[in-house]
């Protein structure tokens, strides 16, 4: 499913009207109706219920007036609370205001002097609020009066259905520069806007409903919109059924180069995640003094001890044996728990340009490239990098806070600059591809902010890559399934109690859920 900016959405709107001749009033009527249908699902009955509809001066307000009319016709008691002067409403919105007036229905001017008290009274006897103040036309922050209205709504603990986008939220960034409606549900039209699927916007939106208002499909699926929301059916579609004569050597061989004294857990998690992803054979190559520690905990994974430094991390002398081990693998996963020992950094910088198999570069292998990110361009193999904001900042040469201010753009630029699939982890994880595509992941929860979670992701992506997923598919599917497994774990164990190992244990269930949907 594509994800739009406000401008892209307005362009779709204009094309629908001008190129296809679909009148705006039809789009607005459909929009208002879709909102009412969601309300019908939420309340199961509209008859006798009381609705307060906050109406702004633009077309978002127009949608709200259409919803008011249909709620009234279905037996609802509807109060339209206008935060603008009637004269300010133009075009389709004005048409719907006039219809409401001709129906002799109440309109309360909340932008007057005692408007706040009118609103307080209205809310005292309200079952559900509809937020039709601002939609994709919103920029900046609301004025002081509207801010008080929004705070009143948010503190009322009434269910709120936001029309298209919660008022006060920026459609393109998901940021709220001031008071913003915290909706229980958001009914967005056509396709989601970026701000609804990244934090903090996703939090303000509540449960997101994407409503068809008869915008032509070809406009909504246009590749000119270079962003997609990952979905279960997309991921399920990338899995290929295994041939009947599959054997462990034909289901993908992964070499994991990871670990150091005191950090063997990261290596073990990555190796097991590659197996859980479905790889047939996984070998974990790590410093020889901790090989037994790892081997003892990994029945299904082969281990190989490599030359190490006095600190118990991989030494430059591990270069040749590591390259030999790569020759017997389909994919290399390098980084979890490696440490940043100078000799280990040197090893990574020597190894990467000589690789002959696709690679997932994670954690300390990325830190080893800080200041040497040109080595990413020098790779002769397809690659996926999986930085968290701190690692991305060190690679890009900026503070993590700056990375967080510009996540989508940075993931896209980095992927195109380094020509590697770039997984910028966080809420929400975004994936940039060298071709300029962006994926946003909807799964996952704060319970996954736990040690080892990233190690599981790196191994999972490597395991998928080894089974024939393209780097872009392996990264996207890995991120989606990792988050889904985290959601399943949190549902069973609670967010605080979820460990990285639990994400690992729930991976099969996560894969099953996308596969069965796909197989239906
Ligand atoms: N996308 C579609 O296919 C359809 C969208 N519809 C609805 O139309 C809105 C967008 O309407 P628009 O008139 O462009 O703007 P808004 O209603 O979102 O905003 C009203 C108005 O407010 C002004 N404004 C912007 N920022 C501020 C601010 N910080 N303070 C005060 N005023 C502000 C600005 O002038 C805006 O014009 C879309 O979301 C849908 O709900 C169609 O109705 C159906 C098809
Ligand atoms: K709104």
Automatic annotation (TrEMBL):
Binding of AMP, residues: 425-429, 454
Cofactor note: Binds 1 potassium ion per subunit.
Keywords of the record: ATP-binding, Isomerase, Kinase, Lyase, Metal-binding, Multifunctional enzyme, NAD, NADP, Nucleotide-binding, Potassium, Transferase
Protein name: Bifunctional NAD(P)H-hydrate repair enzyme
Family assignment from sequence similarity: Belongs to the NnrE/AIBP family.
Gene: yjeF
Organism taxonomic ancestry: Bacteria, Bacillati, Bacillota, Clostridia, Eubacteriales
UniProt binding sites for K(+): 60, 131, 167
Presence of keyword Isomerase: yes
Cofactor(s) of this protein: Mg(2+); K(+)
Job of this protein: Bifunctional enzyme that catalyzes the epimerization of the S- and R-forms of NAD(P)HX and the dehydration of the S-form of NAD(P)HX at the expense of ADP, which is converted to AMP. This allows the repair of both epimers of NAD(P)HX, a damaged form of NAD(P)H that is a result of enzymatic or heat-dependent hydration. Catalyzes the epimerization of the S- and R-forms of NAD(P)HX, a damaged form of NAD(P)H that is a result of enzymatic or heat-dependent hydration. This is a prerequisite for the S-specific NAD(P)H-hydrate dehydratase to allow the repair of both epimers of NAD(P)HX.
Domain YjeF C-terminal as annotated: residue spans: 231-514
GO molecular function terms attached to this record: ADP-dependent NAD(P)H-hydrate dehydratase activity; ATP binding; kinase activity; metal ion binding; NAD(P)HX epimerase activity
Keyword flag Ribosomal protein: no
